[in-house]
Sequence to fold (139 residues):
Amino acid sequence: MTQTTNVSTPPEPDRIDLLIDQVGRLTEGVTALVITTEQLARSSDLQYQILSQQGNRFNHIDDRLDRLLQGISEQAEIGRQQNERIDRLVQTTEQQGERIERLAQTVERQGEHFAQTAERQQQNIEQLTAAVRSLVERG
Fold:
């Protein structure tokens, strides 16, 4: 049996140059990828900061809206209470109006009664005067 040994032949100079050129391009690509990745990371951090600030603003706006809604609710309650007071005041005013009408009717009746009493007293005085004259004339 014969043994054969593989003796590798040195690569050709063109192939070495091509390999060096490809390794150089690969290195440039990896460097560009690293730079792009760093830029993306910075951009992502910046976007996160912007979103965080916007979130803080939205939270601030949400808090202000909550306070405004609370104020509106309080004002609505105050308005409701004022309406109740106005309703009671209207009712009291109506009741006072009714009392005034009854009082006016009572005053009117008292006036009529006073007029009738005055008329009777006038008649009594006239009768008394006539009786006294009659007695004086007879007497």
